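If you are new to this repository, start here. Below is one unmodified record pulled from the training split, so you can see the exact layout before writing a loader.
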Amino acid sequence: MNRLLNTWRPILLGLVLLSVLVGVAGAVPTNQPSALSTRRQLMISAADFYPINDDIDYNNDGTDVRPMSGSGYFIAPVDFPYPLWVTIDKFELFAYDNNSAQEIRVWLNLSKPASFSEENFGYVATGMPYASDTNGTWQDTTISPNVKNPADDLYVYVWFGDSANLRLYGVRIFYYMGR
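And here is the target side for that same chain:
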């Protein structure tokens, strides 16, 4: 009886291996999106921005950031919840602009510490609208290059024109995990 059991074991093992190989070889790709191809969003709120130097008179109550007098530069780091490669699709600026002579300019910048360089991913500006324009959304879908290496740092760089009628509420980045 023991011999009979021992002769079936290699045959059974062979059948299991054969069925696994046939299953893998016969696998058909699907059109279903994977977790990596799902479009995601990252919001950088006004509370994340801080001035680049100390001589800017500004207000940041967490809901909006704005210079109180004069123009000013602000910066906010971008930390994706995914530690590997990220492909950026577009970014949007949420702002208030009630000044026909000044504007808010926003750059999405990539810092490359290994090569001591910096690259601009994209750019958005409120565009000095008519005084009747107020709250709005401005976007850039021409992000280039659009892939962020995990070794590089990404940040949002903002310039406000000299006006108390300019407010930044936040920046939203649309991205995919992977490249």
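Two things worth knowing about this chain: Residues 35-177 form a domain with the Jelly Rolls fold (CATH 2.60.120.260). The mean pLDDT is 80.
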